[in-house]
Amino acid sequence: MRRNRKTKILATLGPASNTHEHIRTLFMAGADMFRINMSHTPHETLARLVGVVRRVETEVGRPIGILVDLQGPKLRLGKLPGGERMLETGGRIALVRSETSDDPDILPIPHAEIFAALKPGAFILIDDGKVRLKIDEISAQNMSATIVQGGMVKNHKGVNLPDTLLPIPALTAKDRSDLDYALSLDIDWIALSFVQRPDDVAELRKAVAGRAGVLAKIEKPSALLCLDEILELADAVMVARGDLGVELPLEDVPGWQKQITRAARRAGKPVVVATQMLESMITNPVPTRAEVSDVATAVFEGSDAVMLSAETASGAFPAEAVSVMDRIAKSVERGPLYRPIIEAQRMPPEPTMPDAILFAVHDVSNTINASAIVCWTKSGSTGLRGARERPQAPILALTPIRAMARRLTIVWGLHCVETEDAHDVDDVADRACRIAYQHEFAKLGDRVVVTAGLPLGTPGATNLLRVAIVTRKAIQS
């Protein structure tokens, strides 16, 4: 099965999409990978969903990636008297370090680390930023604040600290339990929430120990200040616009989305754009025009993947949401502006042999109008470098490692195929032609550009560029 688009679709599983029929339908509609959110998923449900995805994978004969999204720390209010309290703009409010409060004029916050880290002048946001408080005075147990933006606050609503770096790890005890269990299953990616600093990613990377790809969710302003260092440690990043849009001024989010996307492309790391992409399709069978433009913008920018959250997890029209996203991506990529925009964003290669080869592969494939580019890749690096160039020709990533074929399904333009290592240089070209023909990327007489590393089977040693012609002998060998 061949997707006629380069941008990948990541669909979140949930109550609206948790059966074999649902998951198969989502894949057929265009989902390339599935996300499982551990904020709402017990271990037994995780195991069942992974098993179902793997059965669908066997049925359709294509690798399917699975991303497990760790919950991360959750900062919340405690229990209020009566369950809720209206805060008036311009007033003042006291806050106490406690699980509960009997005084209606005091808000409880049961997080010692907040009281330790906040400084006068810092902001506290409550309930996704609907209520904004500015700290006036603070001690180890109490603080007072001015109500900058009032509204109703209720028990256990979320708390955000946009301009405060909290002295807490990104991995909670729950996350570590979820991580250990997820890594015992057949999963491909782990997503880390609440990334504040590069050390958070390094901590997860050490715990994962190469058993899955590490995806850092960029949702904290502090992460933006060290984005390049985070990219160096992560295998992929996500523009998590939900929390990012709470902690940053809303008008700043689109610019940061572009900056994160371009920084990831520069680094050759996959980038996923997420949150509220087709939000109205949670309850409606068609999206708004603005949502269509939002998805299209991410595609024009060259994002590796676009993600659906509640649209497929709990919405009324999960398959329709995937289908709409699929159609938007195809339409953009076929349009007259897409290729010039992508080419204008192309970056010079790094001064390494593999980068130079893949830079040349892009130019050669354009010059000879190749039907496909075929990358032999064991560690995944050749496939990633090929995708970094955003070539016009489709890219087949051939790998002997099933887990790598699944992991690379997140990457722009890669059609992943599991196959044994090439036996010799002739097999590199012949099998590339045969697989390109079998998967309907090339016809007899077409030319394909092949890249691999010599000696064969050496990870990261890309140094071969070869133009091969699809002959009857090659496809029958």
**Number of helical elements:** 18
The portion of residues forming beta strands comes to: 15-25%
Q: What is the overall silhouette?
A: elongated
Overall pLDDT: 95
N-C termini distance: 22 Å
Helical residues, percent: 25-40%
Q: Supply the CATH class of the largest domain.
A: Alpha Beta
Give the name of the CATH superfamily of the largest domain. Answer: Phosphoenolpyruvate-binding domains
What class, by secondary structure content?
alpha/beta
Total count of strands? 21
Number of domains: 3
CATH architect. name of the largest domain: Alpha-Beta Barrel
What is the topology, as strand order, of the major beta sheet? Answer: 1-2-3-12-13-14-15-16
Radius of gyration: 24 Å
How would you sum up the major sheet?
Answer: 8 strands, parallel, barrel
What is the third-level CATH name, the topology of the largest domain?
A: TIM Barrel
Descriptors for this entry?
477 residues, alpha/beta, TIM Barrel, M1 Pyruvate Kinase, Domain 3, Pyruvate Kinase, Chain: A, domain 1, 3 domains, eight-stranded parallel β-barrel, 18 helices, 37% helix, elongated
